[in-house]
């Protein structure tokens, strides 16, 4: 996970550096576009590295990892992930008041006494650590972070000290259900769990885009 965390921090710094050079600055659209570009570059690097793999089993395991899979999950990996997830989620929960203020805008948050830059950097580092630990153990499983937070916000509101633990539990439940579908749909084999989450996530993404586009 630490190697994954180093890569995640490097990608985050690259995204912020690219976004800062844009005329509009660090607005949401610029950061998203920079993230898409960095993600595409990272995917290309992974494919390049895979082209040098000669062992069949290693290649198969790497390909499954790129599509996301819980097939290699064990209690040891759960313990390793918990060592990162528990303190990380605790830090995010402790910053719930600051997140509530930031949701009103940076100027309002600063007026309320929030150290905006320090909080943003700390939360970005914690988010990078949590994402890196999860990806290192389960691979790239897309759309979970798109579906779950919006569903949790619609069901339980925007108060972050309540929203964060609910989103964590809802995300775990959603991932287990997706894994169950992946195992049953191709029994006795198994679909990559990333395929299942993508099939569910794409309609959700299109719905969100349509909702944002409405006047």
List strands and helices in order, with pairings.
Layout: H1 2-20, H2 28-50, H3 56-67, H4 75-94, H5 96-102, H6 106-111, H7 116-138, H8 144-156, H9 160-185, H10 193-213
Helix pairs in contact: 1-2, 1-7, 4-7, 4-9, 8-9, 9-10
Short description:
The chain has 215 residues and is mostly helical. The chain has helices spanning 2-20, 28-50, 56-67, 75-94, 96-102, 106-111, 116-138, 144-156, 160-185, 193-213. The protein has 3 domains: 1-52; 72-138, no CATH class; 139-215.
Please provide a written account of the structure.
- With 215 residues, the chain is mainly alpha-helical.
- The chain has three domains: 1-52; 72-138, no CATH class; 139-215.
- Helices cover 79% and strands 0% of the residues.
- It contains ten helices and no strands.
- Helix 1 (2-20) packs across helix 7 and helix 4 (75-94) packs antiparallel against helix 9 (160-185).
Q: In percent, how helical is the residue content?
A: over 70%
Unreliable stretches: none
Distance between the termini: 43 Å
Count of helices? 10
Structural class: mainly alpha
Oligomer, anyone?
single chain
Count of DSSP strands: 0
User: How much β-strand is present in the residues?
Assistant: under 5%
Q: What sequence of helices (H) and strands (E) makes up the elements?
A: HHHHHHHHHH
* Large-scale geometry: globular
Radius of gyration: 18 Å
Q: Tell me, rounded to a whole number, the average pLDDT.
A: 83
List keywords for this structure.
single chain; 215 residues; mainly alpha; 3 domains; 10 helices
């Amino acid at each position: 996970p630490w190697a994954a965390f180093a890569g995640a921090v490097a990608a985050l710094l690259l995204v912020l550096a690219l976004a800062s050079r844009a005329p509009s600055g660090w607005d949401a659209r610029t950061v998203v576009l920079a993230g898409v570009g960095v993600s595409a570059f990272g995917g290309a690097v992974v494919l390049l590295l895979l082209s040098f793999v000669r062992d069949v089993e290693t290649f198969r395991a790497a390909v499954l990892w790129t599509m996301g899979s819980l097939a290699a999950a064990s209690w040891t990996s759960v313990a390793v992930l918990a060592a990162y997830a528990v303190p990380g989620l605790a830090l995010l929960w402790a910053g719930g008041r600051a997140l509530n203020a930031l949701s009103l805008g940076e100027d309002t948050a600063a007026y309320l006494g929030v150290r905006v830059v320090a909080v943003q950097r700390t939360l970005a580092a914690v988010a990078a650590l949590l994402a890196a630990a999860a990806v290192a153990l389960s691979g790239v499983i897309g759309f979970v972070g798109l579906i779950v937070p919006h569903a949790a916000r619609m069901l339980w509101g925007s108060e972050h000290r309540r929203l964060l633990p609910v989103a964590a539990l809802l995300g775990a439940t959603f991932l287990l259900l997706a894994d169950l579908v992946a195992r049953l749909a191709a029994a006795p084999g198994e679909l990559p769990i990333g395929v299942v989450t993508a099939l569910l996530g794409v309609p959700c993404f299109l719905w969100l885009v349509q909702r944002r586009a409405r006047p």
